[in-house]
Amino acid sequence: MKKIVLIATCFLGFTFLSCRKDATKIDGPSIEELYSSFKVLANFKANKDSVDFASGATVGFSATFNKIVSWKITITGTTSKARKVFSGQSKSIDAASTVWNGTTTYFPLFAAENCIAKLTIDGVMDTFQVPIKIKNTRVINTSLVIADYENGFNPAWVKFVQTGANMDFNIKSDSSKVQGNSYLNMAGTVNWDWLIGLIDYPASAYSTTSNTLNLNANPDAVYFNCLVYGVPNTNMSKVLFQFKEDENADGVFNANNEDEYAFNIDVTWTGWKLVSIKYSDITALVNGQPVTPKGNSIHNPNKIGKISMLHLADKALGAAACKIDFICFTSAPLEL
To answer: pTM score, two decimals?
Structure first.
């Protein structure tokens, strides 16, 4: 019996020793670090001063401090005013993990231009900056561009605009541009109808050999994307895209026995915003409510014969306006 008690006593002693916290280890910053003055131990720098994003090149940023800080890097195009932002909380910024591939946080997109990368630290008055030159902008991978408006109005597109007040359904090139040099402006006042204007984009505008768009048959591998600009102090715009599938490939969409899927965008923001959705997530709609499609009820992006884009607004609320650009399909969510 004494042997049993002795073994149990030794076991309890071992357990106590093995679970005791190591008093030499400190969780989080030390008191000395917390109350020490901020110092830069390794200057803020980029690992290159110019970069060709079109070739797949990237640029990384680094810096080291004497304490954990909240930091932000803002890269601004001196011409485009586009901005890319990185942020974090650490004692160092690592060029291997803080890597810029030419994408944008705040539109418009970057151009081939000079940029300034500025580092700011919470609670620190000083800022640190380095110059970077973009030799060529990144290549945007798309499956099919429906409209970027760079070459004007395609004669195969069909446009209808109501005869309201101050109607403007035109391609413009001005300071509001976001991708390339042009975009479509949509604006007007229609007090008797929700529809302000529309454009039909038929498959024939993109192919002379097929009645349907050349897209992947797998709806989970097809994403629809566009850039939409919300204009402040106007009636909320709705941008409705209708995807009409020519299931029997006869060149004609029949609303009674073929699928039509619809994607409604309520433009509730100000400025440019990227909108992206997987084709398989787009539903059939009637008056904004989901319904069962009238065809085979299978999403077939490769059978889209026509896309209709409608600019809508509540007729009782007055003038509405928005802008749109870079309507395209991709194999993954679009990254700009």
So the answer is: 0.86
